[in-house]
Amino acid sequence: MRIFEIHIVLGIFFLQSISVIADTCFSERLGYPCCKDNKVLYTNDIGNWGIENGNWCGIKDTDECQGRDGYPPCQETKIADTCFSERLGYPCCKGNEVLYTDNDGKWGVENDEWCGIKDTDECQGRDGYPPCQETTEVLYTDDSEWGVENDGWCVICKKESFPYFYTKILSKLGGKKNFAYSPESLNIALKLYEEFLVDGEEKKEILNLIGNKNYLDYKNSLSSKIVNRIWIDSKKKYDFSSVVKMEKYLYAIDMSADNAKEIKDAYVSEVTDGFITSTPTEFSSKTIYDFMNILYFKGKWNKDANNFRIKNIFFPFKTIDGKESHATSIGFTKKNGYYLKNDDAIAVNLYYEKEEIENYAGFQMIVILPNEDKSISDIDIRPFLPYDYEDEVTPAKLKNNFDELYFEMPKFSVETEWFIKSGTKEASLFELDHFSGGSLNRNIYNASISAEISQVVRIECDEKGTTAAAVTEVHGSAKALPKTPIIFNFICNRPFIYVLYDNVNDDIGFVGQVMTV
């Protein structure tokens, strides 16, 4: 569009810092008219700019806005937050039902006419300009970062990065409650499901979420196991010839049988040693499939690394609401220890017993305690994780300028259950706006399908160790110097984050928040 071409010219002149001659309307010398109004939409080294009749125009710089050089002050222009479609000759929608999306933005239909849906998400563009699809090169910065694609300006979206995404999930789904979920289990279940989808928006969004890891190659350890199963109906006809490699996960039962859910729940209980005994999904004659992942971990604390003991006196804990509660705590005192620190939080690694055939445990726990002026949703967890993010993040600094590390936190347990359904806020939270189940390869089973995702998580942490399980279904260190010991107290007496990290597969098995005890 012409307006994109104008933006490129503006960018060139901005970079070259072309001067403006005072006795003329500066924009005329650049091939653009003077504005009749004085509404400033854009400012660079050249001057102030507005838009009239869909084209850029220059706004004369006067103290009283009474005009200049024989030209009157501007009378009309479009406001900066107008929706993009008005520049293309279409009105703004009054509602927000999206029927079509292209590079310009999101579209709906009202009064039998296409209309534009005003952007509410910073990653949907700005002031009528679309989000960049591929480029990340920043050519101009104001309140947003701008790049150029297809001869036009576009907004470089600041998408939720890895850490904020996970803590955002905790904040949005958990609120002020204790909450935990399993990114690893969710990703594995979605990978199972994705293998059966035809190309389309649903498949694309799932791959954007889970990345290119081959989750189906994840391994078990002696203390943890990953089990995948695809439940199908023995009374229905399927054709799995296009996904032969997935047949090993298939398990057929009579979905309409009265005991179908019992069979499924008994399997879950068996895999998790009775830790989780049921899931909320029901089987019936309408059930086409149930893609299931089970992640289970049970580990004892490594007494050489952290000799946990129980403290039966009441442990004061300041809840998310600022109230003081009391609980039984667990903790340890350790010489030659260390903790991790950055500007936002401190963290400590808690280790489990090592595997007999490995030199490390299947999991470790990282407890992250935000500074008192920070909330859980503010925290970037990456600097505290063992994963190598190369140049993406600055690792937290290791602190060992003390003789002993005294650590204490409350015992805790959590059970959570949550769902993702098409069109819900949970689907948008995970950026699965096209998740519906409708992209199942019709060669496998030709039917109209509505799908949902569910996850059940249970975690218990005490002085002995930690047990954690998740079931996801897609249905449809220091050297002592001073004589007086220096002791660093790491006391989790306010809301904190914990991560159960899967060392075997380099992934986040579970992430949770403790808000109250």
Keywords for this structure?
disordered N terminus; 517 residues; 6-stranded mixed sheet; 32% strand; 7-stranded antiparallel sheet
Note down, in words, how this protein is organized.
The chain has 517 residues and is of the alpha+beta class. It has four domains: 2-59, no CATH class; 84-139, no CATH class; 174-300 and 413-475, Antithrombin, subunit I, domain 2 (Antithrombin, Chain I, domain 2); 309-412 and 481-514, Alpha-1-antitrypsin, domain 1 (Roll). 13% of the residues lie in helices and 32% in strands. It contains six helices and 26 strands. Strands 10-26-25-18-17-16-19 form a seven-stranded antiparallel β-sheet. Helix 3 (183-194) runs antiparallel to helix 4 (201-210). The protein is globular and about 80 Å long. The termini are far apart.
Query: Within the largest sheet, what's the order of strands?
Result: 10-26-25-18-17-16-19
Low-confidence runs of at least 5 consecutive residues: 1-23, 74-81, 159-163, 477-484
Q: Which value, in Å, is the CA radius of gyration?
A: 29 Å
Average of pLDDT: 78
Range of helix content? 10-25%
CATH class of the largest domain: Alpha Beta
Q: Kindly give the count of domains.
A: 4
Shape: globular
Major sheet attributes: 7 strands, antiparallel
- Under CATH, the homologous superfamily of the largest domain reads Antithrombin, subunit I, domain 2
How much β-strand is present in the residues? 25-35%
Distance between the termini: 58 Å
**How many individual β-strands?**
26
User: Number of helix segments?
Assistant: 6
